[in-house]
Automatic annotation (TrEMBL):
Pfam families, sorted: PAW, Transglut_core
Reaction(s) catalysed by this chain's protein: Hydrolysis of an N(4)-(acetyl-beta-D-glucosaminyl)asparagine residue in which the glucosamine residue may be further glycosylated, to yield a (substituted) N-acetyl-beta-D-glucosaminylamine and a peptide containing an aspartate residue
A GO MF label: peptide-N4-(N-acetyl-beta-glucosaminyl)asparagine amidase activity
One of the GO BP terms on file: glycoprotein catabolic process
Protein name: Peptide-N(4)-(N-acetyl-beta-glucosaminyl)asparagine amidase
Major site of localization recorded for this protein: cytoplasm
SMART domains: TGc
Residue stretches making up the PAW domain: 287-487
Cofactor entry: Zn(2+)
GO cellular component: cytosol; nucleus
Keyword vocabulary terms for this entry: Coiled coil, Cytoplasm, Hydrolase, Metal-binding, Zinc
EC identifiers of the protein: 3.5.1.52
Amino acid sequence: MADLNWMANMVLTYEDKELQSKALSAVPIREITEKASRQLRDQQREARDLKRNIEESELYERFYLNELVSWFKNEYFTWVDVRNCKDCNIDMVFIRKYNKFGTTKSPHPYTVEVYECSMCGLNAEFPRYNDAHMLLITKEGRCSEWAQVFTLIVRALGWRARYVYDVTDHEWTEVWSALSKRWIHVDPCEGLVDSPLVYELGWGKELTFVLAVSCDDVQDVTWRYSSNHKSLLARRLPHLEKKYLNSILEIRKRLLANKSPNKRLYILKEVISELAELMIEPKANGQYLGRISGSQAWREARSELGAQSRKGYVWCPLKNEVEQMELVVRYCTSKDIYVRDERGDEGIFFGWNNYTFNSSNIFRKEEKDWKMAYLAKKDENRNGIISWKFDLSESRMLIKTVKIKCHCFVINEGTVRIELESDGFPMIKMENVDYFESSTFENCSTFTMTAYLGDDLKSNWQHSQLFRQPLDSLEFPLIIKLILKPQ
């Protein structure tokens, strides 16, 4: 059973001003603010061009959170599966763990994992600190450490924040949006914002209890993370439900005792409002991917690859796209967003990998010196693969024409091979093309575009790039446009 008292005490340490100051000193606030502001200006300009309204404050908040998560995941914190032997350049093997009950480094109890190199016999330790002071120094860990430090940083930036614990073994953060009056799911390990159903529908988790703890309150928020409340309820053991409820009420009473009467009333009203919200079963609004943090072997051992991780995201036409006989998806590398035409705020999709059908050995690179962004392959010894899929079958529409803008950047031995295919139709293969238009796939209901980076396995990873553009660019180096027609 989760120790809610321990979590409540841990979160209270995040109110320490000295600790918050230390956390803030690591955050590139100016850079994050500039990126979020630039994205908002881009959307304002596009909204004016398309004569549509946008909620600017909420959109900026979302841009800021996305930039904060992106920085934390890609530049600040490091994921640890196992220790690596630097002498032999191989992953070590876990052999044991033991508990430490406070040291001069960290006064809080923590677990230490011990790893051994199978070649040279060297041992290495991985301390699982529960002390934010130490984690700001080590800047490494798994989901618990990531959630602890990210929650602290959010508090230091002035937002209300919760540390969220899923008893099936995962942690993340919730951030209070004063604009939309709700708690927003943020998973720094996955780089996700406001995607609460990902664990159930993407990872394939069977959730039971998800508990959120802040400096003001503690709440059972499991219902926010499930689209099937009936099945969820059947999995919750009554005796555990009673124990958690008693713990929540006890901790809430203790936390409220230190608040002013007005503050207590405000928090209790908020609790009631949230409970009413949690009674409404959330609906899935797309397809969800399996877990991406950690190695594939580690994720597979935890059964968190998810069924969706094998087939990924599929773009399907919406009502207005059917009416206009056109489905257009654009991707901007500098902002790391997809934009779907004519959809206002709802037409913005964050994160290159969240909306691909498949990707392997691909990452997004930002060059701080050259001020460029692009997609490239991670491992030089194998090619990178990325694909996008479209399915019109449920809309009763067919493809008439395919138009693709796909900016490729290759040097020396680098190659970018593009393959276009649809069920039952010949595959089209091209190399290093920037624009393609064809009616070859006319009367098809599905369409997949796949890019292979660096077929020559000896080529440098930088020699084969997709969608390279300046960090301040407003262009879309990928545009996939399907002209539609009725069946």
